[in-house]
User: Which sequence fits this backbone?
């Protein structure tokens, strides 16, 4: 096994016991990036020298720890681990482009964002910044190819981060989630993606799409890896007005073992399994049954206020995004992509009444969800209703003859967790007939990350052959081995 193939947890153990040096790991991942980028284009920029410098510093720190068996006491599990950051996240000395022409001449950041600073303090090595759908305002990330099939969409808006992790071109990555932008690409690329509780991970220094919906979270190869990253990211920061007064020393790692006795898993009898591809429905129901085999109790639940979900999502996000971009939309509208510009211009036409009604609906929806979650510990549902579509596909047509745009299809099942602010974890649960990954999301109570991670980890541990993304990306469009 090559170092780039290691999960975060496995790499951390190899570094702790000095069987692997951070320099070897970083060099292996950088080599992997060089081999995969021509086909996948996950990265805006690769920070090779910065990564090597961080790896050398981590190696020196590890060498100074004696004996090796005690290294874990002085260095955490992210020490020396290669990370990629979505290019909405400020890093001192690097530009934050948001994958947009609007920021072609954007100055480099003066300071790290909170999450970048926390990762740096934990000893990570930044290997690069990954592509996003322009300003995170989309669900496909068109410049990046799916890690399993370069002719298909990566998902978005954190498409570059998900693809980098799936292709083993980063040990883990960070993304943002406003309408599903961590979980959608995680599901489409067969990796794990966690959208934390709103306000649990600070957003200071992260370009906003919609401030009342934005979340920052990890994309990883395993649930355990996501828990390790969350233990570093979470915690209060007064510079983010939405930051919760939570401690920054919580250990989110789930206990080993796959016993779910006493856990109540809600299975939606409405909304989440409506207009869903048969392969997705079969795989998710199979995963839910596996949770029952592991000891969980399955409970039917009714998802509340479903008719208002998409209207509320767009009613909040569109005007808030337009307000953020108001100045550049007036001064240089031609620099936005056509799909983004039309959304921003639409936001300018929305009334204050429309926005306030969306806020009222969000409050009522959150209260209704909290009542539903009083009856169960997690809700299990598909992450997205259909797997990665081909890059030129614009709509999804359902068997009853109805259709919806690809973006509407991808956001439909992920939006509720953003509106209500509850944690949501996407885990791989199989593949469709074309070999494309399928994801199941586990939604929990506010600040219930430990529970959703426990359930996801138990599932993953019980089906290891199905629970991981490939560490070797498929052949490129010209048959080139990556």
Assistant:
């Amino acid at each position: 096994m090559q170092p780039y193939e290691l999960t975060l947890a496995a790499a951390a153990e190899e570094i702790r016991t000095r069987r692997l040096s951070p320099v070897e790991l970083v060099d292996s991942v950088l080599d992997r990036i060089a081999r995969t980028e021509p086909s996948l284009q996950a990265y805006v920029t690769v920070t090779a020298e910065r990564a090597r410098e961080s790896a050398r510093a981590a190696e020196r720190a590890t060498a100074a720890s004696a004996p090796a068996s005690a290294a874990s006491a002085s260095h955490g599990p992210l020490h020396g681990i290669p990370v990629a950051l979505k290019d909405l996240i400020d890093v001192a000395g690097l530009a934050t482009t948001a994958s947009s022409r609007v920021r072609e001449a954007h100055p480099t950041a003066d300071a790290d964002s909170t999450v970048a600073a926390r990762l740096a303090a934990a000893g990570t090595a930044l290997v690069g910044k990954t592509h996003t759908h322009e300003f995170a305002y989309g669900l496909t990330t068109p410049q990046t190819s799916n890690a399993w099939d370069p002719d298909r969409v990566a998902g978005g808006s954190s498409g570059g981060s998900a693809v980098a992790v799936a292709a083993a071109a980063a040990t883990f990555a960070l993304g943002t989630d406003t309408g599903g932008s961590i979980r959608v690409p995680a599901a489409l690329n067969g990796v794990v993606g966690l959208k934390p509780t709103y306000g649990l991970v600070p957003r200071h220094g992260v370009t906003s799409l919609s401030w009342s919906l934005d979340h920052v979270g990890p994309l990883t190869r395993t649930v355990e890896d996501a828990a390790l990253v969350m233990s570093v990211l979470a915690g209060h920061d007064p510079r983010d007005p939405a930051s919760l007064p939570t401690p920054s020393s919580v250990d989110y790692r789930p206990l080993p073992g796959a016993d779910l006795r006493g856990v109540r898993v809600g299975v939606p009898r409405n909304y989440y399994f409506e207009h869903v591809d048969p392969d997705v429905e079969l795989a998710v129901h199979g995963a839910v049954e596996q949770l029952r085999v592991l000891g969980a109790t399955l409970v039917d639940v009714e998802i509340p206020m479903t008719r208002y979900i998409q209207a509320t999502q767009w009613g909040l996000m569109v005007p808030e995004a337009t307000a953020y971009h108001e100045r550049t939309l007036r001064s240089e509208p031609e620099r936005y992509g056509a799909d983004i510009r039309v959304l921003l211009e639409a936001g300018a036409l929305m009334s204050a009444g429309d926005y306030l009604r969306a806020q009222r609906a969000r409050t009522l929806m959150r209260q209704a969800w909290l009542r539903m979650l009083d009856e169960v510990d997690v809700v299990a549902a598909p992450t997205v209703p259909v797997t990665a579509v081909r890059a030129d596909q614009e709509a999804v047509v359902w068997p009853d003859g109805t259709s919806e745009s690809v973006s509407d299809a991808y956001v439909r099942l992920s939006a509720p967790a953003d509106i209500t602010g509850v944690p949501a974890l996407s885990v791989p649960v199989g593949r469709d007939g074309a070999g494309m990954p399928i994801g199941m999301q586990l939604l929990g109570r506010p600040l219930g990350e430990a529970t959703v991670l426990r359930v996801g980890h138990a599932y993953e541990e019980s089906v290891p052959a199905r629970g991981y993304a490939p560490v070797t990306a498929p052949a490129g469009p010209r048959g080139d081995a990556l």
Confidence is low (pLDDT under 50) at residues 471-482. The two ends are 16 Å apart (CA to CA). The chain has 16 helices and 13 strands. Residues 352-373 form the longest helix (22 residues).
